[in-house]
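Lecture notes, continued. The same structure-token format from the folding unit now serves as the input rather than the output. Read the line below as a description of shape only.
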């Protein structure tokens, strides 16, 4: 049974009320602005790869509102040998709805879609604060910690999905 169809209540949102779907990139801008990149001053929340044909964007819907977002890009990380890799970027949940299962719902949907594309590895540059979230989804991390300007410390996290 797909994750979002499990019928039980957890932290005030029923999983049955959460659904992750492919969305247009523009629908990610509000959460990108509010949660991820409040330092941006020019109102440009687009990423250069948003419209690449291989890129897809997911949104978790709750009562017809998008409460969590993530962007999936075909991109190889130099530390991993396998050919078929995707990178997760700009993953965030609306502050009001964090720790209620919306990010997990989105992540599990992405794994379903990436498996269909026969992708072998998903990786991301994870903010240190978000590492426990990715660990809860079975991602591993490389040891190195690095700084990204305006955002802070990060680790590379990855999951083999085949
Ligand atoms: C990190 C983030 C995307 C997680 O999304 P979310 O919708 O809040 O996460 P979920 O509710 O689906 O959590 C799934 C699991 O991760 C755990 N988790 C999520 N965030 C966590 C945190 N900061 N610390 C510890 N555990 C966390 C949850 O407790 C849950 O665990 P469980 O399944 O064992 O109960 C969200 O908190 C967020 O937007 N943070 C700010 C922006 C950010 O850091 N984005 C990541 C950029 S790399």
């Amino acid at each position: 049974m797909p994750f979002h169809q499990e019928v039980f209540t957890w932290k005030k949102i029923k999983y049955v009320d959460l659904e992750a779907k492919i969305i247009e990139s523009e629908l990610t801008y509000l959460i990108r602005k509010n949660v991820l990149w409040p330092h941006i001053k020019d109102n440009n929340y687009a990423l250069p790869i948003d419209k690449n044909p291989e890129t897809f964007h997911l949104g978790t819907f709750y009562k017809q509102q998008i409460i969590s977002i993530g962007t999936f890009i075909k991109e190889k990380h130099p530390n991993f040998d396998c050919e078929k890799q995707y990178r997760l970027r700009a993953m965030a949940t609306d502050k009001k709805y964090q720790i209620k299962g919306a990010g997990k719902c989105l992540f599990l949907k992405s794994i379903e879609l990436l498996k269909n594309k026969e992708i072998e590895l998903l990786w991301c540059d994870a903010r240190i604060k978000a590492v426990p979230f990715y660990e809860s989804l079975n991602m591993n991390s490389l040891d190195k910690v690095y700084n990204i300007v305006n955002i802070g410390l990060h680790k590379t996290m990855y999951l083999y999905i085949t």
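Point for the exam: The domain at 9-160 is CATH 3.40.630.30 (Aminopeptidase).
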